[in-house]
Structure formats: C-alpha cells, structure tokens
Amino acid sequence: MEKLVQGDVAEALRDGSGEAICLYVAACAERMAPLFMGVRANVPGRESDVEFYAESVRDLWCADRPLADAAERVRLVERFPELQPSEEGITDVADTYAYFAVLSLRHALLAHGWGSADEAVSCGHIALTAMGMLDRDGAGADLVAEERRLQSLSLNGDTATLWDTSVTAGRERFRAVLSRLPR
C-alpha cells in the first residue's frame, strides 16, 4: 500500500517541535472543517456539534500552547454520531466526508493536546484518504497532490498564509463534495 503521508513530512513532524505539530494539525483540520460543517450546518439537532467543531478548529490555531481541555474535547468528539458504530455502515456521500472530517478533528485534538507526532501523521493520513476518495469519485482535480503540497507547506509556512491557504482549500473541497451530493 502506498504511504499516504510523505516520509519527509512524517519525519519532520517526529523531529519537530510541539508548535510545528500543532500548526500542521490546525491546517489539516481547517481544510477538513467544511466537510463537516457544510454538510451538518442545517441538520436539526446538530447545531451544538457544528459550533463545537468550529470552536475546536479555531482553538487549534493557538499553536504556541497545548489545549488544556484536549482530553474533554476528544471525549466530546468521540460522541459525535459519525464515530458511532452502525450496522448499516456509512453509505451516504455527506456522511462519508463528515466522518473523515470528525475523525481528522479527533486526531488533531490528540496531536495538539499531547504534541503527538503519530497523531499528527494520522490526521494527515485521514485528510489524504478523504481527498483520494474525492479524486476517485471524479472531483475533477488532483486533491491528493494538493493535500500533499499543503501538508509540506504546513511544516514551514507562516501561520497567516497557512490559515488562508487552508481555508481556501477547504472551501474547494466542500464544493467538490457538494457536486457529489444527490440533487
């Protein structure tokens, strides 16, 4: 199986500082956020989940300090319906990408809270997996290559540029998911 997170990125995360890990996962979570928030924004009963998700992604950008309540946030994310087992599995397009977004947030919170390079690599792996599915589903772009580029940029870009680039990429991904939703 192809390694999803590039070796040099994984190595830089393992050799880097806690702040580098935090910026990397903040950027990954930011790019994935529209895949959850966009498809769940108008779902009755999910308002607090969407708000919590947005708050958590925002707080991940405070890379100079670990989240004091990371364990509590992880516990709350693990209660999201996307991470609950179901006999039917995930078959819906919106549910699939919301699942990947929630799972990436979980790993981002773990990486940020404890400075874990392994959790950061898992966060990146999830983003690449989701983009690979979008590419295979005919999104019309090479989203995996773009995600790889952005993951490398996340290790040595400045925070403002990284945030702006991640927001833009997240919006493009959401548009790709929207194109896959039944009308």
Detailed description of the structure:
- It is a single chain.
- With 183 residues, the protein is mainly α.
- It has one domain (7-180): Up-down Bundle (YP_001051499.1 fold like), CATH 1.20.1590.
- Helices cover 72% and strands 0% of the residues.
- The chain has eight helices and no strands.
- It has helices at residues 7-15, 18-40, 47-60, 70-77, 93-114, 117-136, 143-156, 159-180.
- The longest helix is centred in the first third of the chain and has 23 residues, at 18-40.
- It is globular, with a radius of gyration of 15 Å.
- The relative contact order is 0.20.
- The model has no long low-confidence stretch (mean pLDDT 92).
Secondary-structure topology with pairs:
Blueprint: H1 7-15, H2 18-40, H3 47-60, H4 70-77, H5 93-114, H6 117-136, H7 143-156, H8 159-180
- H/E series, N to C? HHHHHHHH
Tell me the structural class. Answer: mainly alpha
Q: How many domains is the backbone divided into?
A: 1
**Portion in beta strands:** under 5%
Tell me the name of the CATH homologous superfamily.
YP_001051499.1 domain like
How far apart the termini lie comes to: 35 Å
In CATH, the architecture is Up-down Bundle
- Rough outline: globular
CATH topology name: YP_001051499.1 fold like
